[in-house]
Amino acid sequence: MTRASLAAAALSLLVQAGPSAAAPPDPLVVRTEGGLVRGAAGDGVLEWKGIPYAASPAGTHRWTMPRPAPPWKGELDATRYRSACPQLARYGLTEASSEEDCLYVNVTAPRSTTGSPSAKRPVLVWIHGGAFVGGSSNLYPLGHLARSGDLVVVSLNYRLGVLGFMRHPAFDAEHDGGFGLEDQRAALRWVKRNISAFGGDPDDVTIGGESAGASGVCMHLIAPEETKGLFHRAIVQSGGCVHRLRTVKEASGIGTAVATHVGCATAETALACLRGKPVKELLEAGSKAAGSDLLAFAPAVGNRTVPLQGAEAMATGRFVRVPILNGGNRDELRLYVAYDVQAGGSVTQENYLEHLRKVYGANAEAVLAEYPLAGFSSPAAALGSVESDFHPAVGLNGCIYLRGAALAARFTPVFEYEFADRAAPPVTKDPGFEMGAVHSAELPYQFPHFSNTSTLDGPDLAAPSQALATTMTAWWTSFARTGKPDARGAPAWKPFVSDRAVMRLEPGKTGDFDAGAAHRCGFWRRLYPELLGGGSP
């Protein structure tokens, strides 16, 4: 046979073989609306990091709605995280950033999910916390949830602090103070359009978050005209959906103060002036303007981004009626008492009442009678426990979580929990008093070795805590798949009907308990009926 006839025979065989002879597609390369992205293989998962979901919001695009990301040519390297959004370091722990080009998503999928259009998986979108001024998606390893739950898991960055949540009269009135939330919604729309390419089902999406991230979930729930159809279940970890937020008008003083600090007080030129200022100068001005106010950059109510107070929306059914997994931690605000002590403050037997007056005003004497120091290991622990039961100005407390569950449960299934493992790894250095299950202490149970830094160097959990973490992961991921938390060998978790049957997450004591009695919510309702409602839920 001649060389020519051999070549012809080979070509004939290839033609007969058809598409099956072609090389299999590379599962690490995915086509998105912007172009091809190349990820990396991890431990049982495929990961794509740093995919732009919106254009850079720098320069003349500061304080504007998120814009589509420009397309790219060739393959985008999606093997590493991109920068966190601008923020100052906080509490001697978190990491600073000044990079405004920060609007990126990360996607993690079990290896079997990509390249198989018939096997779409449920999607979990995680929104990071950080008091609306810090945090980033690169602090949360997604592989554990993806593998354990057979989910496609997404995380995202969004504008923070002065650049994402500051209010100012010069900004677009429809979205004033809501650009960080609008970034989150732009990311959810990106997921809707693109996640099927990664093996995810765009019509089976759960959104979840902790702290400020949970508050973001709340804000998406109570803005149905803006978000309906973008998600189908919601996880709220320490979010307080029905805590009263400031109105845009009430909150505009922070933006005015920032503008004054940086020399942009003239109304006619304020916006152009602010857009010309260096990021670090704006961040430092925001910190000065906020002072000790934990909610200085919390979302504000009264515009298109957040049209209603959470309590009004939940009470009247004007929210996205999807199943909700809701709750918080037993000792939430002991963390912030610890931060105050580390900064030089003190809580003593002599000044305990003074601290109560700062929070509860004319009700302080009644609070002291209900919470005498004799019932606690230290004055600092006492103050943290009181505030964790109810704090009128901060939505991180047991009674506000229960109030939100009671209102929402009239319209949709709510699964209420309390994380109560006082043996959880420490969140901050030892403040000299028992911290317990403080704010954010549960995160290593879902994101192994979470440490609030990109080093992910948190300790291993003790055996009882690890057993609880396994159950929690099963509950959270089954909720993301079905809308019902279920875990083999664990107590049945029923939808919320009253404060008296809340799922307690504590090693050896997991099961229903009376959360209303534990947090003395009857007492607090009598003192603050306008915030908690009178009588039982």
Q: How would you sum up this structure in a few lines?
A:
The protein is of the alpha/beta class and 537 residues long. It has 20 helices and 14 strands. Helices cover 34% and strands 14% of the residues.
What does this molecule look like?
This protein is α/β, with parallel strands linked by helices and 537 residues long. 34% of the residues lie in helices and 14% in strands. It is built from 20 helices and 14 strands. It has helices at 3-17, 143-149, 161-164, 179-194, 212-221, 224-227, 248-261, 270-275, 279-290, 310-316, 334-342, 352-360, 364-370, 379-389, 398-408, 443-446, 463-482, 515-518, 521-527, 529-532; strands at residues 29-32, 35-38, 40-41, 45-52, 75-77, 104-110, 121-127, 152-156, 200-210, 233-237, 324-329, 414-419, 502-505, 511-513. The strands form 2 sheets. The protein has an 11-stranded mixed β-sheet with strand order 3-4-6-8-7-9-10-11-12-13-14, with helices on both faces. Strands 1-2-5 form a 3-stranded mixed β-sheet, with no helix packed on it. A hairpin with a 5-residue loop joins strand 13 (502-505) and strand 14. It is globular, with a radius of gyration of 25 Å. The model is unreliable at 1-21 (pLDDT under 50).
